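Supplementary Methods, section 5.1.

A reviewer requested that the exact input to the structure prediction be made available. We therefore reproduce it here, unchanged from the version used in the analyses.
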Amino acid sequence: MGMMEALPYIGMVVVQFAQVVMLLAAETAIANGMTTFAFLSYSNIFSAILLLPICFSIYRSDPPPLLPAFLCGFFLLGFIGFTVQVLGMTGLIFSSASLSTTILNLIPAFTFVFAVILRLEKFNYRSSTSLAKSMGTVVSIGGAVVATLYQGPSLLGNSSDLLTAVSSTWVVGGLLLSLDSAAAAILIIVQALVVRKCPAVLILMLFYSCFIAVVTAAASAIVEKDLDAWSLNSTGRFIPVILSGLFGNVFQLSIGMWCVRRKGPVFTSIFHPIGVIVSIVAGVLILGETVYLGSLVGAMVVMAGFYAVLWGKAKEAKVIDNEDGKTTTPLLQEQGQEQGQLA
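The structure derived from this sequence is encoded token-by-token as follows.
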């Protein structure tokens, strides 16, 4: 495997570390009194501020055409992204960073299901690869259900009691994060479609950040009356906002979008289990979170499903000779490869 072929794999591993940093930053800001909308608005504003000079320097001599169809794609991505970020932040408030990364591993399952429904992914019940991805999807969902509905005794971290039943807030958090995963899967597929028309990923992320910043600020003005939630007078708020903006839209989503262009939406989504281990370790060491038996068992089951999907995708990704002697590649991978290098 050459360096250029390895870059999408390296990029998606780095993206998972960035996601954990973003989750820990969000949890820290919320713990210091920031509200969901205020945090998301600041984070996206900072992302836009970082992206603006970068986009200007890169695309100044050859700006991409911003046709109405492209602008519709920007707004669609922004609306779905707003939904994803609000659901994810709210679910994080009710649960923890470790449960969040565990439940987010439903994204490959939902992506596969939605891709099949939209006929972006071929499904053949006689094919071992399709069966592996289907079984992996079912197993992943089962693991998420275990992590949500069963908490169990504490294994790592500080806990004053041993829980044998899950709390109601934990269930609410798990359900919100499951909805977040479904919305994120839709976002990944829409990204794959939009970048075919607008390969300028950084321009796309600039519009994306601006849209979410405006929408979250407007939502905050409607539902939140406490202006103190917008204060950045403490490092417990300011630094998390900076980290979230940097590792969120500017870093995580931009690299993720580039990988979508190169390999397709299913490929990018199947790297999420890597973040589980990182978030558990970081949550215990940095935030003093408690790891429960249910979360660990659920994470192991979800990862088993992940490897089943990964195996199916790896087998499918091999170029095969059809009966006519022509070569074919999976449709989703082909969509990513058509776009070539990052603009």
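DSSP finds 13 helices and four strands in the chain. These observations are discussed further in the main text.
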